[in-house]
């Protein structure tokens, strides 16, 4: 008989080990899945995890790693603050979209003027856009105790419609021959978020992600506000007893995660993506949830988890090209990762015991 | 703009159709939540049901078998959630999200060869005589069986919760799992069964979209219906009949905005398309003023420590 | 009245790191009240859970009415005639009385018949109850009646009662005892779990005493002194705390016209509370559970804000201040619930020291935390209050109840408060920890701090308090000097019998 026994305190060792277990199990079951799809599992896993870094086209895909990891890390850092406090913002995708619209809109408002201050204004606009979008669920939760999960998620669908409206209307490229989508910011130097170091994929958004990791680390480990956030998640009543105002935590965590998601959207639209278009968003807001959990809501963990998930994106594309592995299989693969992580997380707080069966 | 093109009888009839998937998924989730479990994976289970039902119907040619497999598919996926939350004691919010992400990936993988196909149409229950009544015939008596099944399901859940021993035990488990355990009830077993019922309902609701409402398969076709079903449970304050009411309300809004789009009203299409989601938020805000309580153990992890 | 109902032979149950029951044996006779006596953690609950089928023994056996008895689950135990009145965790607040009772029965009759039966049985035993009221709205005493009636409807042979009087006023205790005597006269055996010695002497025919999981003795309570039983129970002689008898100073805390709705769904609102507390005074606030004790603490800690002038600390209105602002002024509190309210279970003791110590101990600088200083503070608490733990890095939940309570109380005491409010300071704590906590409270008062002790343990209040007041349905009585207060007077202050009536013995 298997029984569970609660550990007197969470195991430190397992806190580090569980993500590794989860990755290994996902590789095994992912391999089985790829086999079921008629692919060679070893080849597929190798294509996803090895080739983007060291394979034939690595020189092309390596910079992509940072390009994809940047937004994932930036969003996940924001989400992790809320998740730690038991505040579930799952509408980062919407905040990402609105941040992109505001950032791009602010830049295009100056077109064709060239000035140094345009890009900083776009950064601020992007952050504000995401922040404002996240303040909707935050204020509703504070004022009316409305469930933030449902509201933030509903706002993703609203944001998607807003995006469609923008790329067909207000932000549509006047010189675009009637095609939907905004002007391409790559052709507008003052607004373009180019690589800081050529050939690395390192753009301002990636730099912002690094800063966010450090910021979150200091906040959570060295600052009273971070302590209050953790305390709210661990024991809400103890937090109130300790003088934490739960509403302030809600406003801060949702606002912060919205602003970071908005920033991610803004950097993406001004850089790698280049323009506002109907399908500009690519699900980073949802994948970032996996990143946040895989990184165990720890800033450094999220950093590595972001790189890993970026790898699966790039490797997945590669596998799509070279092996004909369907794109949905990668999505499923990422979902599996979260599943296994949640399942093995049990070991951190519980011990599995094989109890002797009483005489048969 | 030509509002006269909107036929009120057809509008009301299609309201019932639009309401059915979220009603069935919502009543399933209501049972899950009354047992004290918050499964946020409704969207994932619905889309899995949608593709399972669609595939089974295409392969067997029988919509009835399609719905059966949709329910089985939804229940199978919900079993994963049950394993995570009831056995591995994982956080329910995170596990529900994982289920949705997983379900979306799984369904688009399964559905690759099925895009663009058309399923055989499901038989309509054209009740003779009754369906010939002007207006009411069209509105009430000329639907497919599932529409009536959905309403019957709401009634059955209501009666079960209110009048039967099973319902009482289920509510007790959702209210205070420690007390239920102390009295000797199998908390985990009851919850797993409730979760699977919820999964089967979500699967049915999903299949209704892919087999009747649309009917064809496209990736991510549930488009938030699962989340609206979750909102419906909050809206209903965990009371079965209010799920029915809420589903009709949301169904009505969806149908109305589609009709307005078709009639060429001078409101931008995007505004109309976002209206069901905005109204969901507004209703959630209004309903959060209602302090009737959620099941007290909702979302809490149960571990029999002794 | 003489046959043996249940024989318990060598029951043993071990949990990781602790043997909860070690070869426990005793007998319960038909129609007797048998006391199971022991401190917190002596293994009473585990033993009872084995009889009720919630826990399986590792070894040993039971015989009921001459037949082997090993219930695999509560259902089986109930079928054999065992019924249990729980101390906690067995009622469903949102369900009504009849539904709650139906859940505890194997084959409940239809609701209408059940309701009639409930009315009939509750009248018969003097425990009036409306079957259709929602349980969450009932008082603690009424909730207990629900449990008792749930048991009585099954015609039990053995009724297990776990600390039944902790939620009753002295008058209600008398009525309960009448009911129990009536039951034994009908041939029902009662296993009565308690650590209150006088009660056991008044009620029980036999007593089995457990210490650290072992049966350390059996006695006839009526013929044994409370002191002898206490020594068997505790093992060592206890030091009773000594008050230094400090003279009272000026009024430091002035509560006037404090009213507050309860933040929880089934809580009790505070109604027009008045009270004055002097420096060096220990005020004991008694009352049956659920009469506003938790709300009182929330109002004083600042977790719920009240009118500014309802609370005055040294003349300054503090009703609208947040907990930390009150701490800065010298008002500290320690809530009843250790895990989740007074401390965060999964966080380390260092982090838990920061939880309330930030302001007065200067544990942060412009919001940035001083972990070194915080850890020293935690270590100081651990050392001065003899908290048994490997170190301040350990999680709060890894500590035993008594040790964590010493940590929680020590955390506040070492911050040198002007006013300290504690709720149930020794609830679920072993005797030696309880004694040291009480001593700490008295020492603090001797140093000039004003202390409010909210407790349901009247013996404790009589021991530490200078003055006594009681909470009854959210109202606070006038405070009276503890000295010379009789148990009857205390009972009346607590609200008397709350509408109970004595069992109709002639029925």
Q: Can you offer a commentary on this structure?
A:
Chain A is mainly alpha-helical and 360 residues long. Chain A has one domain (38-325): ABC transporter involved in vitamin B12 uptake, BtuC, CATH 1.10.3470. Chain A has helices spanning 12-36, 41-49, 51-54, 58-84, 92-109, 118-144, 148-168, 204-222, 224-234, 236-241, 246-270, 284-294, 299-323, 327-344, 346-349; strands spanning 2-6, 195-197, 202-203, 350-354. Chain A has a two-stranded antiparallel ribbon with strand order 1-4. In chain A, strands 2-3 form a two-stranded antiparallel ribbon. The longest helix of chain A is centred in the first third of the chain and has 27 residues, at 58-84. Chain A is globular, with a radius of gyration of 22 Å. Chain B is mainly α. Chain B has a single domain (3-114, 141-287), classed as Orthogonal Bundle (ABC transporter involved in vitamin B12 uptake, BtuC). Helices cover 69% and strands 2% of the residues of chain B. Chain B contains 12 helices and 2 strands. The longest helix of chain B has 27 residues, at 8-34. Chain B is globular and about 65 Å long. The model of chain B has no long low-confidence stretch (mean pLDDT 87). Chain C has 507 residues and is of the alpha/beta class. Chain C has 2 domains: 4-234, P-loop containing nucleotide triphosphate hydrolases (Rossmann fold); 251-493, Rossmann fold, CATH 3.40.50. Chain C is built from 16 helices and 23 strands. In chain C, β21 (467-472) and β22 form a beta hairpin. The longest helix of chain C is centred in the middle third of the chain and has 16 residues, at 170-185. Residues 501-507 of chain C have low confidence and may be disordered. The interface between A and B is large, with 47 and 44 residues.
Task: Identify the notable features of this structure and list them briefly.
A: mainly alpha, ABC transporter involved in vitamin B12 uptake, BtuC, two-stranded antiparallel ribbon, two-stranded antiparallel sheet, 4 strands, C: 507 residues, alpha/beta, Rossmann fold, 2 domains, six-stranded mixed beta sheet, 16 helices, 23 strands, disordered C terminus
